[in-house]
Amino acid sequence: xxxxxxxxxxxxxxxxxxxxxxxxxxxxxxxxxxxxxxxxxxxxxxxxxxxxxxxxxxxxxxxxxxxxxxxxxxxxxxxxxxxxxxxxxxxxxxxxxxxxxxxxxxxxxxxxxxxxxxxxxxxxxxxxxxxxxxxxxxxxxxxxxxxxxxxxxxxxxxxxxxxxxxxxxxxxxxxxxxxxxxxxxxxxxxxxxxxxxxxxxxxxxxxxxxxxxxxxxxxxxxxxxxxxxxxxxxxxxxxxxxxxxxxxxxxxxxxxxxxxxxxxxxxxxxxxxxxxxxxxxxxxxxxxxxxxxxxxxxxxxxxxxxxxxxxxxxxxxxxxxxxxxxxxxxxxxxxxxxxxxxxxxxxxxxxxxxxxxxxxxxxxxxxxxxxxxxxxxxxxxxxxxxxxxxxxxxxxxxxxxxxxxxxxxxxxxxxxxxxxxxxxxxxxxxxxxxxxxxxxxxxxxxxxxxxxxxxxxxxxxxxxxxxxxxxxxxxxxxxxxxxxxxxxxxxxxxxxxxxxxxxxxxxxxxxxxxxxxxxxxxxxxxxxxxxxxxxxxxxxxxxxxxxxxxxxxxxxxxxxxxxxxxxxxxxxxxxx
Length: 576
Ligand SMILES: Nc1ncnc2c1ncn2[C@@H]1O[C@H](COP(=O)(O)OP(=O)(O)OP(=O)(O)O)[C@@H](O)[C@H]1O
Fold this sequence. Notes:
It is a multi-pass membrane protein. Residues 364-576 form the ABC transporter domain. This protein is α/β, with parallel strands linked by helices. The chain has helices spanning 2-17, 21-57, 61-109, 113-116, 120-123, 128-167, 186-206, 209-232, 234-239, 243-282, 285-295, 301-318, 320-323, 325-348, 403-410, 442-447, 457-466, 477-486, 489-503, 519-532; strands at 172-176, 179-183, 355-358, 364-371, 385-387, 392-396, 417-423, 428-431, 507-511, 537-541, 552-558, 562-564, 573-575. The chain has three domains: 1-169 and 300-351, no CATH class; 170-297; 355-556, P-loop containing nucleotide triphosphate hydrolases (Rossmann fold), CATH 3.40.50. Strands 6, 8, 9, 10, 11, 12 and 13 form a seven-stranded mixed β-sheet that branches. The chain is elongated, with a radius of gyration of 35 Å. The relative contact order is 0.09. It binds adenosine-5'-triphosphate. Adenosine-5'-triphosphate binds next to α15. The site of adenosine-5'-triphosphate (ATP) has 13 residues, from α15.
């Protein structure tokens, strides 16, 4: 319970602290004010009940008609308060949701947490991206609803109990085992006792709902993720006739949803068996309890209805916990999921291992670096290596040796390892085998991650020409979306290399970034790149010797923790 409250407090601070969060507080105050005004209308309606039924009992037509007019006036005010309140609450929700989402996104991107948290096995965090979308929404939705209701209910309770106290002046007198017992103002005591017992039963019956709601969210997210993944890999699935396998996976994930849903439905049914009859009787019981006073002539008919109405309000207000149990369970579940996510994201930004430090002499050096997989399997040993600025290198090693892991370690992304990597204080560009083309037009794809307006039209055209892709320039926006999806692997790699022409980094680390090009194309694009950036350092990881790079040093990593000479193509390679 304390943990849930501290999660809620932490997340609420993030809601208030973000952009628009303080304006949200004004909305919160307004919504609360309207809620409290609504309580005053309810208090007035209790008094109206006595006036109306007393007028009825006296058969006073004028007074009855006046009370009917007052009733419609009160209802009109109540409706206006309710509608304005729910509109302002929606404005509040979007403000706080934005603040919370921005805070979650900040942590998600800081220190590349989105990368470090990609494996569930590594951190126990499922579908973190969906937490940003779904849990931020659920949390703010439930928080604003439940917090405002809690405060208005406390105020309402005080008002209604005060009314009930002033009305129920009569005691309940009975004898038990020969002892005469008299409970003064028993209607006031009966209300909380009734609700306390009912809340206890509700909590006992509904306790498993929190974990079931938590699990439901997770399974729904797993299902959505599998569908999104299929969309991303349609081509590979279609070529492999993978429909049956995909269908199987989706069916499995949906079965998991259905299983948990059944558990949720069963539990809600059990809870409903108690809360539903409770809900139905809560409005009648007060009348039955006050009947002895009416039947003995101590209260008028109007008084009986007024006491009934006041008791009803006390019980309904106290029962808020019972009726809101499911919402409170969802609030608690979303708060703990989000807090777990934020904590994991903050933890992911801790210093990377191997240690990345600034190199003293513009060189890139590896000292005593050893890497292992997230599961703890040690990768092939790495020798101490040193890369001089302005040179070109080709690194070769058997498949699975750990070349890509090494590139990620240099980029500061590989946290599983030890040793020290000295990096030059220069701009480094890393190109993976499968380049990422963001959504947007061709300029956006080429300028990524810079903004498209950062470069002149001529620069884009030159970059495209250097990689032999000038024809793409003619493709306008809607057609580009289709063209982007249809780009071959080699064309995507060329576009990624065109980005290097635009950004002109000092160090270029290519991890099989030309693997999809034919030898002629590779010779052309690498030759053009080296010519355009003569002072840059090239580190190229590939299974075959690079073409077009000019003079380079070759490093073959072996499983004996060392390098060995590579047979040089004549006149091009110096071995290390
Ligand atoms: N996220 C991960 N979780 C578990 N194992 C991983 C992960 N990433 C890489 N590995 C493992 O680490 C080893 C090295 O992978 P890496 O991609 O660095 O190899 P590589 O030398 O680049 O191979 P290739 O030449 O085939 O691209 C492989 O056995 C791979 O399965």
